[in-house]
Amino acid sequence: MIDLHTHMLPDWDDGARSWEETKAMAQVAAADGIRKIALTPHIFRLTKHNDDWSVLEERKAEFKRNCMSLPCEFSFGAEVFVHHEMVENIRNHHLTINGSDYFFIEFPAETVLPGVKDLIFNIMLRGCIPIISHPERNSVFSYRPGLLYELVKMGCLAQVTAKSIIGEMGQEAKRAADIFLKHNLVHIIASDAHDPVNRPPRLSQGVREAVRIVGKEKAEAMVTSIPEAILQNAEIGDWGEPLDPVREKKWTIKLPSFIKKT
């Protein structure tokens, strides 16, 4: 399997605190059947060094020197917190996944930036393909799934967290994850791992639960062929059109109590 979203780069954000913790996370991943991992550290949010690009490059260089002893194959990317100047930063600081056109975009947990469609349109005009990080954990996407549908129809991809699918990120996140999977609004299952114990790099449980919703072939593709295509900067293949949860919702009308059946 491939885990495309992790916070395993040591001493940069709220993920791995040390090289020892990174090694422990890699062991957990390998035991779960993960063979490739993308390091996607936070950018413009939760960083320890004020987004100092020289420090980030130092951390990446250190990782490259040491990673040969780890049981997985690694590539670099980033999880970029949404802002209006993000395209320039993505290209100038090489924040896409493995040098591809794909990158992770993160929204605040409680909001979605006003004018997001215009921002996404301009990003895609510049040749970048956004992957929306864990929309099931965003309250706006959770309660307005039609907005996620609109962004996916524009060409965005989306990533669901494995722990959300199995209910370990709360029932609201699980409810939203189920809806997004059912309506073909998420394309990748990733761990969003931050440590080896509480938020470890594991995918297998999430995949097994996803099989119940989308079937074995699609669930497995979400951790194999689809992330592999992203790493190779290729198209992800045709896995069907996204469905609008709002249009599919079946409304029921409660009759007033004075209307009696005859």
Structure description:
- The chain has 262 residues and is an alpha/beta fold.
- The protein has one domain (2-248): TIM Barrel.
- The protein has 12 helices and 9 strands.
- The strands form 2 sheets. A 6-stranded parallel sheet has the order 3-5-6-7-8-9, with helices on both faces.
- Helix 3 (86-92) links the parallel strand 5 and strand 6 (102-106).
- It is globular and about 50 Å long.
- Residues 250-262 have low confidence and may be disordered.
Set down the secondary structure blueprint.
Blueprint (H helix, E strand, L loop, with lengths): L1 E5 L12 H13 L4 E4 L2 E2 L9 H14 L6 E4 L2 E3 L4 H7 L9 E5 L9 H10 L3 E5 L5 H5 L1 H10 L2 E5 H4 L5 H12 L5 E3 L13 H11 L1 H6 L3 H7 L13 H4 L14
Give me the side-by-side strand order of the main sheet. 3-5-6-7-8-9
- The number of distinct helices, counting runs of at least 4 residues, comes to 12
Gap between N and C termini, in Å? 59 Å
The CATH class designation is Alpha Beta
By oligomeric state, this entry counts as single chain
Fourth-tier CATH superfamily name: Metal-dependent hydrolases
Helix-strand topology string: EHEEHEEHEHEHHEHHEHHHH
Question: Top keywords for this entry?
Answer:
disordered C terminus; 12 helices; 262 residues; 6-stranded parallel sheet; globular; 14% strand; TIM Barrel; 3-stranded parallel sheet; alpha/beta; single chain
